[in-house]
TrEMBL record:
Superkingdom of the organism of origin: Eukaryota
Regions of compositional bias (Basic and acidic residues) in chain numbering: 103-124
Chain spans, region Disordered: 92-124
Name assigned to this protein: Trichohyalin-like
Positions with biased composition (Polar residues): 93-102
Amino acid sequence: MKDADLKVANEWQRELDRHGFMQQCTKLLQMMEDKVSESAKLMEEKEKKVERSEQEREKLRNRLSEVELGLLRVEDEKRELQHRIKELDHSLKQSNELNGQLENKHYHEERRLKNKLRQLDEVN
């Protein structure tokens, strides 16, 4: 800066100082810097909250996937059990039919043997 310019600047500063403008400007500047700093802190806190929310969301997504897989396993097991029940019902039905046939055969065999015994008794 030229000496003349420096002299003008110093005069302006003295004039501003005399009216207290420099002090007011300094206070305003400090207040603005404080607000900027406060805003930066708030933004940082919000960014951290967003990051935590995203992490929590990811954990929930993972847990949901685990639950869905578990549900699929349970559904598969249910289908297997239902199939096994059908097989057992079919086996029971066959067993009952065979049992009925055996009872019928036994009944007729018993009648035949009793008739034979009666015939033998009549002969004696």
